[in-house]
């Protein structure tokens, strides 16, 4: 007697197979989601570290703030173009829409960010300039609510407040009113607002294109505008020494190609507000670079501030089912 055969179309067996399929898909989705969050978080941490050296490099550059901002973006374009071509040849799964409105707005926002930040770095302490610039999460929440009607959960708001308190501790010694730094501090606050808009725009752009193309195209927009600004407002465009070119190359390859490229990667995998919170790590690293290169000492209170920032990022971390 042959073994009984079962019709795969039977209702009972069909239901069992459907349940197993759904369970398998659920496990795969959770696994993929967790992997995406880890990749995004690692990219954002590395981006913060890559960008944290930029204030010190701007101080060391032998050209003015607008020229250094232009070269920072322009010198990164060949690397970003190669990355874009490689990513798309390898079959990047995101659509390849070119120069979307969101990408152009990201380029405009980043232009404003660099314009005011490079001025702020030269007119206040590196710690202050970086702290005010990394207040971008606050502006992401404000602009996200005002412009896009986005809301954030309670954990994210608590994490934001904790990060802000930690960042304040990092710069508490230099936050006291000082007329010689007032202009620089104000420029830093404006920088943070533009940086917040940049996060929102890149987050929107990543919905229609891949990280490499978004970073390259927004950089084209930024470098074109900054060239005009530098041409009219800088006494000279070219650095005067080999070391000067080295500083600009480091700005372009590390801070821009590395930093902004990794930000674009992260924003395709992480919530925008959380991504901007991770940038608070830039404040910690920038303070350490300023201590090593320019003697801006790190105190115990500042060290505690760094720990508080890490705690705030942990509190606001995304949760997966």
Report on this structure.
This protein has a domain at 42-153 and 178-270. Helix content is 77%, strand content 0%. It is built from 14 helices and no strands. Helix 5 (101-123) packs antiparallel against helix 9. The chain is globular and about 50 Å long.
Q: What portion of residues is helical?
A: over 70%
C-alpha termini separation: 49 Å
Biggest pleated-sheet summary: none
Strand content: under 5%
Structural class: mainly alpha
Give me the count of strands.
Answer: 0
- Determine the number of helices (DSSP H or I, runs of at least 4 residues): 14
Query: Which radius of gyration do the C-alpha atoms yield?
Result: 23 Å
pLDDT < 50 runs, ≥5 residues = 1-30
Mean pLDDT: 79
The secondary-structure element order is: HHHHHHHHHHHHHH
Please render the helix and strand layout as text.
Layout: H1 11-52, H2 54-60, H3 65-74, H4 77-89, H5 101-123, H6 126-133, H7 136-148, H8 154-170, H9 179-205, H10 211-233, H11 242-267, H12 272-278, H13 281-294, H14 300-315
Helix pairs in contact: 1-11, 1-13, 2-11, 3-5, 3-10, 3-11, 4-10, 5-6, 5-9, 5-10, 6-9, 6-13, 7-9, 7-12, 8-14, 9-12, 10-11
Key structural traits:
single chain; 321 residues; mainly alpha; 77% helix; globular; disordered N terminus; transmembrane helix
Task: Offer a quick outline of the entry.
Helices cover 77% and strands 0% of the residues.
